[in-house]
Amino acid sequence: MLGNIVIGLVTSFLGGTLVWLWERAKRARAVNRRAAFFGVRPGQSCLIVLGNKHGSPRTATYRDVEAAMALALLAGELDCKVVLETGSFRGSNADRTEFCVGGPTGGANLRTGGHLAAHLPGVTLHPYDPGRPDSVAIEVDGEKYPFDKGDREFALVAKFQPVESECPVFVVSGQTSTANLAAVHFLRREYEQVAERLTSVERFCLVIKVSGIGTYGFSRAELERDVTAAAFMA
Fold it and tell me: What global pTM score does this model have?
């Protein structure tokens, strides 16, 4: 009888250990998938470049600060330190994954404009002009994503690696700060489903739609279209 008890204890111990190891490996795979999507390497430093509030240099909108905080939380969950810079930052992101938040319209984030011009020649961000129907519209592959402030807005999200850098750049360029925040929260929540629809998570460009803003704020966001091929085409 004693032998049976010992065998039972050993079996229970081995079974519990195997379950623990399986759960640990499962969590590690999930962390690695998330890190791969956002281009982060656990233990490294991340650079967050935050745009200015339109017409107020060195002042960020509340929503953009929230977006930066959400990205900083993501980095922390992946064991990464964070360095914050403004949109006037110049230089390479080098060995730091860069999250560049905010569009270039009105000089809000000039670095975003530089990134898009250098790496996404197929993307056009129309300037703010209240007299034109395409004011602040995002245009890719001949299709325009119009700006309907406070109701339906869009954000362009792109990931790429500059040739002079060791780590990628992750750009979030929304038509407003609400669209920026919506895109960040959507991708944090749905990155696995989005990744399944992409050919590669190493380089991509997406249009995120935010709707029902008057009722749902930044919560109702969805993937509108994968525009990777057209965005990076010269």
Answer: 0.86
